[in-house]
Design brief:
It is built from 12 helices and 8 strands. It has about 300 residues and is of the alpha/beta class. Strands 1, 2, 3, 4, 5, 6, 7 and 8 form an 8-stranded mixed β-sheet that branches. The longest helix is centred in the last third of the chain and has 23 residues. About 10% of the residues have low confidence.
């Protein structure tokens, strides 16, 4: 601790987990409602988005957007014409980050709360901590999931999703001065789960005319993003295979990293039933995050003194 009379510095480690990550919003809201404010926030992938939005003062704005989003809104972020770098429409993605996470001018070193986003050096496999520079740029690198988002060039390195090396950045919180770390694990019980999708995704897309005259392409593409796995004997589609491979290795890496550098409080919202890109299920995820905090409140208060 800083002194005999001071309270311990609290770190909040927000883990990776795609659409399950909206539960981070609930965790932060739950903590703040109890007067527990983190001194350090470190995030990986979607955790970097939520953490960055909070330190930049945009969390409420982000929450309002995600609560009002639909499957069609999610699909608009994906370019149906796959480029060599990924599926995501980079222009729309940049617009989203600058409007709901942080503006181009907001820099990490100027934030009132210590913040770091974790990414991975694509060439060396080393963990990279962004502790200065643009908040949105750090988030973009931390979220660069291979195959979906393009890699980000920074300091002569190509950076991709931090979940490849450190899905829950407890170690980063400690390095930035946190004495008590509350970590949020979104990867518990995800390996082996099958999240069935609904063909209404394609139908609703067509009815709204989002993709105009390429309805069949939209149907095939949306089924790839939200695959229907009721037919067990069918070979898994490309995206399904990628998504569940990511689930498996992140679950394994998470266990290994937490064993070596455990959190003081580990929150595991019950969100394993939410599919990788089911961002429209934000209300469920946020509620799960808030519930997790309420259930662990006695433990948190005992450790933090709040």
């Amino acid at each position: 601790m800083n002194s005999a009379n001071s309270l311990p510095r609290i770190g909040l480690a927000l883990g990776s987990g795609a659409s399950r990550g909206w539960s981070h919003i609930g965790v932060i809201k739950g903590l703040l409602a109890e007067g527990i404010e983190p001194d350090v926030i470190c995030g990986t992938s979607v955790g970097a988005i939520i953490g960055g939005s909070y330190v930049a003062g945009n969390l409420e704005k982000l929450e309002n957007w995600v609560l009002g989003s639909s499957r069609s809104d999610v699909l608009r972020f994906f370019d149906i014409k796959l480029s060599q770098s990924g599926f995501v429409d980079t222009n729309r993605w940049t617009w989203f980050l600058n409007n709901y996470v942080a503006t181009e001018n907001q820099r990490i070193e100027d934030m009132a709360i210590k913040y770091a986003a974790v990414s991975t050096d694509l060439d060396t496999g080393r963990e990279v901590w962004s502790t200065e520079g643009g908040v949105a740029d750090a988030v973009r690198a931390s979220m660069a999931m291979p195959g979906l988002f393009p890699a980000v060039r920074k300091d002569e390195r190509w950076l991709v999703d931090g979940g490849l090396v450190n899905p829950i950045p407890v170690s980063v919180c400690h390095a930035l001065g946190a004495e008590i770390v509350i970590a949020v694990n979104l990867n518990r019980d995800i390996a082996g789960r099958h999240n069935n999708a609904n063909e209404e995704v394609a139908a609703s897309m067509e009815e709204k005319g989002v993709l105009g005259n390429i309805k069949q392409q939209a149907k095939e593409y949306s089924n790839a993003i939200f695959p229907n796995r009721d037919k067990k004997k069918e070979a898994p589609g490309l995206f399904y295979a990628i998504a569940h491979s990511i689930n498996i290795f992140q679950n394994r890496i998470t266990r290994s990293r937490l064993a070596g550098d455990p959190a003081d409080v580990l929150l595991s919202p019950k969100v394993s039933h939410i599919g990788m890109l089911e961002f429209h299920r934000a209300a469920e995820a946020i509620e799960a995050g808030e519930l997790c905090v309420r259930n662990a409140l006695e433990e948190i208060r005992g450790l933090t003194g709040r």
